[in-house]
Design a protein that fits this description.
- With 342 residues, this protein is an all-alpha fold.
- It has one domain.
- The chain has 11 helices and 2 strands.
- The chain has a two-stranded antiparallel ribbon with strand order 1-2.
- α2 crosses α4.
- The longest helix has 78 residues.
- About 8% of the residues have low confidence.
Length: 342
């Protein structure tokens, strides 16, 4: 093993270790699911990508080492056949080009998983918000969890799973069929490898997101399964054993023989968010009722004031009329008395 290979291995393992430490403090995934807050989604994406680096970097080490060897031999061959300068400008060194292509290969691989995390988060949140937060029926939740487990278990026996795991466990087979030269080739092969790896492992990560298993315990459990699938030459048997286990557990969950496997923290966050939304709605309704009641009271007060003013005005008018009538009667009586005296 040469110096470059040791550097690649140390970089991958070191990055994986740092990512495992960073994954200890997971952001609240349920906030991003229930509110679609861009900041919460960004935090989840960063945490998800770190988790993928923690789980998958040890697995893809043989693939990266083989790619680094191919790039190194290709650069050395081209370097021996070309001149050092072209038009007075120095070419980039072969080691820098090699490092850049390896980084691009790994970065594009991670990009596929980052986009997958966002798709899982947003796609599952539709089911979460409509079925769990709205209905809240334990049997509905159990049926959804059981169905997800059965789907994940059955997928382990499909031809697509067998094809993807074949490319992942045999780096030489992957490069023989998907080799692309140059920097653009590093990007394309990184994306290809990410998609094959996604086709091999997406069901595990669907369970982690959907059932709220984004913690170190479940991450370590599934990382062990994935490592066995990809490193062992007969990793398909590990996948099928996991498929049998997931299918049986899913059937038992639907039958009610096993409690729902949704994380209690996730359910608590769901109930808290739904209760807070209901409380906010109740507060809004109460405020609207109070405003309407105040409006009715104010209108009634205005009507009462207007009626009292009208009654007072009518009373004053009647008093003036009576006083005028009395004055006219007294004037007529005086005139009659004067005429009699004459």
């Amino acid at each position: 093993m040469d110096k470059t290979q040791k550097v690649v291995i140390a970089s991958l393992i070191g990055t994986s270790a740092i990512a495992w430490i960073a994954s200890i403090q997971q952001p609240d995934m349920m906030v991003a699911m229930s509110t679609y807050n861009p900041r919460a989604i960004s935090l989840f994406t960063a945490s998800w990508t770190a988790g993928m680096a923690a789980m998958m970097f040890p697995v893809i080490t043989p693939m990266v080492l083989l790619y680094n060897r191919f790039v190194s031999s290709k650069e050395n061959k081209e370097g021996s056949q070309s001149s050092v300068t072209v038009h007075g400008e120095c070419k980039p060194s072969s080691s820098s080009i090699q490092s850049m292509r390896v980084i691009l290969f790994i970065g594009c691989y991670l990009l596929v998983w980052a986009l997958m995390g966002i798709a899982l988060l947003l796609g599952w949140s539709v089911v979460l918000n409509s079925a769990i937060m709205t209905a809240g029926n334990p049997q509905v939740i159990a049926n959804i969890c059981g169905a997800l487990l059965i789907i994940s278990g059955v997928y382990q026996f499909t031809p697509l799973k067998r094809t993807c795991i074949g490319y992942c466990e045999s780096p030489m087979s992957f490069f023989m069929r998907r080799w692309r030269a140059g920097t653009s080739g590093a990007v394309k092969m990184g994306l290809y490898h990410g998609m094959y790896c996604l086709g091999c492992c997406w069901s595990y990560f669907l369970l982690m997101v959907a059932l709220g298993w984004m913690n170190l315990l479940w991450m370590g459990f599934f990382a062990g399964i994935i490592l066995g699938e990809k490193i062992w030459s007969k990793g398909i048997w590990v996948a099928r054993a996991a498929g049998i286990g997931l299918t049986l557990v899913g059937i038992l969950v639907i039958a009610g023989m096993v409690p729902s496997l949704v994380s209690t923290a996730s359910m608590r966050n769901n109930s808290d968010s739904s209760m807070s939304m209901q409380m906010n709605d109740e507060v809004d309704n109460d405020s609207e009722v109070a405003l309407n009641y105040k409006g009715v009271e104010s209108s009634m007060d205005l009507q009462a004031d207007a009626s009292s003013e009208a009654s007072q005005g009518s009373e004053m008018t009647s008093d003036v009329d009576q006083s005028m009538m009395q004055a006219m009667d007294s004037a007529e009586s005086e005139e009659v008395s004067e005429m009699k005296m004459k």
